[in-house]
Specification:
Length: 71
């Protein structure tokens, strides 16, 4: 598994989400969830987490955005 600070492409993140929907395993330390913000892929690397959230993007922008949560 690549480090949580890896800059995944939208296509790679969409493939992880599709794997989750199909019941296939995700990479180690990655989980999938749905929140009020949208579909999320979470990579845990204590004490931090990278949370990738998919939203409807504005024209010309990425669909997946990442935040890092410490603690």
């Amino acid at each position: 598994m690549a480090p949580m600070n890896t800059e995944w492409s939208d296509a790679e993140l969409d493939a992880f989400w599709a794997a989750h929907l199909e019941g296939r395993p995700l990479p180690p330390r990655m989980t999938a969830q749905t929140s009020s913000d949208g579909n999320q892929l979470v990579i845990s690397d204590p004490p931090a987490r990278a949370i990738w959230t998919r939203r409807t993007p504005p024209l010309g922008r990425r669909a997946w955005g990442k935040i890092i949560v410490l603690g």
